Amino acid sequence: MAVPGSKVQGSPPVDVAASELFTTDAYLRSFDSTVLEVDREQGRIALARTAFYPGGGGQPHDTGELTWGGSTAPVTRVRREGGRIWHWVDALELPPAGTEVLGSLDWSRRHLLMRTHTALHILCGVIWTEFRIPVTGGNMDPGKGRLDFPLESMSVELGQRVEGRINEEIQRAREIVVEFLGRSAADLDESLIRTAANLIPREIDPLRVIDIVGLDRQADGGTHVANTADVGSVRVTGTESKGKGNKRIRIEVAEAAD
What is this structure's pTM? Predict the structure, then answer.
């Protein structure tokens, strides 16, 4: 089975694969690295490579710990800035450049975010299949999220129908694959139109694509589970009208029903 990261299609940029470990292995829980740069004023460090996701595309950043020289300190925030991924470390003294460190993710939080992110992609696929309309916005927290769509109307009944369809796709145990697709090929890929891939800066080449095989393909930089069955189950918790042609669906993920 093609697991997001442990087996990918296409060739990721060498520098990205070597330094941004989450792009090719979402299941990596710990890693070793070296401190590249220290910003003591802001209490943060940049690493030569990291498995901490810096946030983006609606998915929050990871948290966890860094260990060096017998000391362990929480990583409270991660953000991409100035071409580096910075880690805010809650420590009285930051490790100097060149220090070898061990990074450990808060795995329960990360895995819940992976399940949530995949559930939102399943929702995208269901809405596209039913209505042929794209997602226009969204956000998530561990275990819950929301997406906006240019639907003309919204109802509780539609939310119930969508919930049923999402859980059907979860139970189908669809494989989820990471693919790196060159921009010229992406421009010709009609399945990516609904994600507005043409709005992504041209210098990002190749695009990282998350493919829920047979349901949904989107240019996406976040982390996902390996199979829709790993999401567990989904409940639609709210359906809202945010104005004409803008409707919101809220979801929560839970463990699979026995």
Answer: 0.92
